[in-house]
Amino acid sequence: MVGKKSGKALRDEGLERTDNNMELSSWPQIPAINQKNYYTDYLKRDDQNLAFRLQNEEARTKMTKKAKDHDRALAMAKTETAEGEGEADGDAHMEDAEETPAEMAGSKVIVIHMGSQNLRIGLASDALPKTLPMVIARKAATNESEDHDEPKPKRVKHDDGSEIEPEKAFGSEWSSHFNRMSADLKVHMRQNKRRMLPNSKEMVVNYNRRTVPEVISEHNDPMRAEWTELSNPPPEYIVGQPALRVPDSSKPRYKLYWPIRNGWCNEKDYTSKRALFLDISLIVEDAIKNQLRLTSKKDWTQYSCVFVIPDLYDKSYVTQVLDMLMREFAFARVCFIQESLAATFGAGFTSACVVDIGAQKTSICCVEEGMCIENSRVNLKFGGQDVTETFVKMMLHDHFPYADINLWRRHDFLLAEELKKNICTMNEASVSPQVFDFHLRVAGQDTRKYTFKAFDEVHLAPMGVFEPDIFDNSDKITGRRTLIDRSVDIYDGSPNDPTSAAQSEILTAMAPPLSKTNGESQLVVPDVQATPSRPQHPHVLSKVQDLEGTPRSSVAGSPGPENTGTPQAGGTSTPAATAAAAQAPRPPAVEDRDDIMPVFSLDNAILTSIAHAARSDEKKMRDFIGGIMVVGGGSLTSGFHLFLEERLQALRPGFSKEIMIGTPPRDLDPQVVVWKGASIFGKLSGTNDSWIGRLEYDRLGPRLMAYKCMWAY
Ligand SMILES: Nc1ncnc2c1ncn2[C@@H]1O[C@H](COP(=O)(O)OP(=O)(O)OP(=O)(O)O)[C@@H](O)[C@H]1O
């Protein structure tokens, strides 16, 4: 046949047919669908989504119940009218029925706000939460002060190990920073016509050098401390306030663990994620049992839980907490609320720039119409505890008579906190050499009464939030991401924790310079321990690339007084600006961000946050700048609000009339505003769609968060 080759010819060409000339399958082959005409509503309708379905069912059930109640009330009203026993109409009965609910709103909702130092917990129906230290003491071979070779604050010693003069104990760099701050304060006070003696510092140092403590025997001390008595056998762990009161020299020894550190999970002091979350759950469990008096864990299934999370939260942390609340505590429903949003709820504001100064972290976020503005979120790693440590350092520098103070010891930590709270002030008028005293109470020892003089230390220590290089920032990011991995996108593996343009800008300013190696840029992370005090970083005016890769024009200007603070419109670029942008530091890659310590002056950070919230809209800028609300324990230093106002006015003279620092209304303690707001959120009925129920959690797990969060999860 023409065209057909013989078997031999095919074999010669290596193309011999080996099949039997039949189709591979007798099944009809279906051609691919033309995508143009293709349509499906799979996962496009709400009723295909379990979370929405359950929500609708719940709403329907509620409506049916309400309608039934209504009918019943009407029927009862009719009967009563017929019997002629009352003049009251049906509406009044209905109101009665509505006004006497079976239980108080929020009495079955537990609200939890965990901080680096304090846990605030209570029922949503409570006026105020219970506050307890977020700490657990575990039986161990050594306590935390024995575990550390160096005292806190760390002192420099002579080469032979002998003590060095107090003025040199913290290194020359720190001393010169402290002296510079002291000199600046003097100049400022003179400008403000405040009288001060020229030799105040010498007077203080001379007084402190001479003073010796007075010993008071324990039985003569009316205010002696109550130490935690260990039962027999000693417990494996002790939680909260009693943990802080276990004597350092207890037998057996106990070691303190703080599971939250700098607003993150404490990955420095723990060796496993399991142990870390075990401690969190033990502390919360103990608080629910002993503070809320819900002793039987079986009853917790009837309770819901509102849990406060940071504005810039780690997704893996939220997932883990959700699992703990659902599986271990078996709550009926759980919902999350971000800290700043909760603060506006607590204060009753619809929009504000919330500044939360806690113990170890400070967060800033602008909230508008019940939503956190994502790009305005800032999280800085300093707070009240840094002020405490720096105050002690400054006092030691000026010959504090209790030279042996070591904040790793529990009694010294408590003493330092108390001194700071009582003495530190941001009120310039209170800066003068003054005599103070304190009682040093150590378990099993006689009380010692010390007197000492303090001068500008009381003002300069809290000033540290505006010059955070004075703080010891050396180990704040140690251990980060060692126990808990960064959350990544399940499809492309890229990091997907929330970020913000304002935080990016701050990290860019903090990032060490990029060095070129083998033609590739590499982030050089300096040994922060070796360089404890970095020069003040200029506020950058740079193009900020947010994480999604969208170039965004930074609107935060240089903090100099020449800047009137008017946000600059994005997109206009002059050759000079282009050259400056080329030279300006580039935002660090997502993976490198954990290596940069977000420690930035508070006033500049607030302005950066507001600039990103306002996005060139001057009216918004004025609204936020006139609605700054400061919350958190760190803001309780006296005169703080006025001082912050003055700093901001100096940075933005163009807005000086508008700048206003507000306090939470109704004399609410700034430390509990966030909790209060979360409790209000927990009491909202009908409008809160973010409850995660047991059934849906069992079926869908943490994926539910995508549907349940008010913010982009
Ligand atoms: N009267 C006061 N004056 C100055 N500081 C105070 C005062 N009262 C409390 N503080 C400080 O407030 C801090 C605790 O604040 P808060 O309870 O808001 O922190 P937290 O929520 O535990 O921590 P974080 O927000 O860092 O996670 C401590 O450092 C404490 O010293």
Structure description:
With 713 residues, the protein is of the alpha+beta class. Helix 14 packs antiparallel against helix 16 (602-614). It is globular. Mean pLDDT is 84; it is low at 86-100 and 515-578. Adenosine-5'-triphosphate (ATP) binds at residues 115-118, 263, 358-361, 383-385, 388, 417, 421, 632-634, 636-637, 671.
Layout of helices and strands, plus pairs?
Blueprint: H1 7-13, H2 50-83, H3 90-99, E1 109-114, E2 118-123, E3 130-133, E4 136-139, H4 144-147, H5 171-191, H6 200-210, E5 214-216, E6 237-239, H7 241-244, E7 254-257, E8 260-261, E9 264-265, H8 273-290, E10 304-309, H9 315-328, E11 333-338, H10 339-347, E12 352-357, E13 362-368, E14 371-372, E15 378-380, H11 384-397, H12 410-423, E16 434-440, E17 447-454, H13 457-463, H14 501-510, E18 514-517, E19 520-523, E20 543-545, E21 551-553, H15 575-583, H16 602-614, H17 618-625, E22 628-631, H18 640-651, E23 661-662, H19 673-683, E24 692-693, H20 694-700, H21 705-708
Parallel strand pairs: 1-10, 10-11, 12-22, 22-23
Antiparallel strand pairs: 1-2, 2-3, 4-6, 4-7, 5-17, 8-9, 11-24, 12-13, 13-14, 13-15, 16-17, 18-19, 20-21
Bound molecules: adenosine-5'-triphosphate.
